[in-house]
Amino acid sequence: MKLRSKILIIAGSDSSGGAGIQADIKTVTALGSYAMSAITAVTAQNTTGVKSIAPISPKEIYNQIIFTSKDIRPDAIKIGMLHSTGVIKYVIKSLDDIKIKNIVLDPVMVAKGGTKLIDNKAIELLKTKLIKRAILITPNIPEAQILTKTEIRNKEDMIYAANKLMEFGAKNVLIKGGHLKSKFVQDILVNKVEIKIFNSKRYNTINTHGTGCTLSSAITTFLSCGKPIKKSCELGIKYVNSSIKLNPNYGKGHGPINHLNTISINRKFR
Known about the structure:
Layout: E1 6-14, H1 20-30, E2 34-46, E3 49-55, H2 58-71, E4 76-79, H3 85-98, E5 103-105, H4 120-130, E6 136-137, H5 141-148, H6 155-167, E7 173-175, E8 184-190, E9 195-201, H7 211-224, H8 229-245
């Protein structure tokens, strides 16, 4: 397979492999592109929760981004877990230095088990300075509630929150609807031109660890190959749904999804 594009991922590590930088790299690879990384934190976690978080210094995160990009220039950047104001400031500085157009921001704030991954000052900086630099942001409902200080109970609330995020400078907002209790999952893309609702079947499973990281990385990959925002979101959602459907059922808690659902193994490697 010929590699289609190059993606730089700025995110935290997940030792269990289901979310974070590990899920991002698997996703980009499974969709036929080349993944690079700048790790923002190292977590000790498994499917039942997070044991500890060890932050990487902001300067070292900056060095990872700049040194990597100077050698292999990315076609797109995906940003995940940024745990402090110092990290966000250095990430913004690096983005200003390397000047990449296609930036997808997944504002990771809380782990699947409930552990908070970002402090309040960092949330404010993300909201006022970083959101406007991204071509797309992909919050889930709890994240959108934190960012907009509104309650989301239905799709109308999701659209209202998306418009609030656009007031902060967001160009395109995809709010993920998996946290609402409904027969179907509705993910809603909002920009100044249109509102697009993606309806997906809800699978009866607790194995959804890393779905947010995976979706944002999938969308970034499709964007990096030249697909428009709406089509990239549609294809990313389809990839995540297939990954949930074919999950391996690993672990005692919220297990990982199957990032390899797009891969066909060449006969000589079987």
